[in-house]
Amino acid sequence: MAGEPQSDCLFCKIVVGEVPATIVRETDTTVAFRDINPQAPTHVLVIPKAHHRDAAALAAADPVLAADVLREAGEVAAQEKTDTTGYRIIFNTGTGAGQTVFHAHAHVLGGRGFEWPPG
Ligand code: 5GP
Ligand code: ZN
Hints:
Blueprint: H1 10-15, E1 23-26, E2 30-34, E3 42-48, H2 55-61, H3 63-79, E4 87-90, E5 106-110
Antiparallel strand pairs: 1-2, 2-3, 3-5, 4-5
Helix pairs in contact: 2-3
The structure holds guanosine-5'-monophosphate (5GP) and zinc ion.
């Protein structure tokens, strides 16, 4: 069911502390932690504590929670001091776009320049 913890989900396990992570921010509804394979000096994942498979499903099921994730992405960028130089918020959606963990998450990337279009 949408929003319910999934026993086979890596990020649900991070939410409850079953899998360790370097947490940089936490709210009642979200957790932000460093990506294990960083692609930029700042690479933080912001997730809702509730399980939703991707960003669109999250927004459809719980728009307030989706906004919580976006606001926290901005807070992470400010905390990491990448908000003045610019940063990216990325939601890979579907395997073809590189999604590997099917628990909605925003990648917050900063601390270097970025090209457009993305690869
Ligand atoms: P996706 O490919 O689904 O957009 O992003 C999943 C991200 O989760 C990847 O960037 C990957 O490096 C990260 N990741 C995978 N396993 C772990 C883990 O156990 N801990 C942390 N902190 N990040 C992980
Ligand atoms: Zn999950």
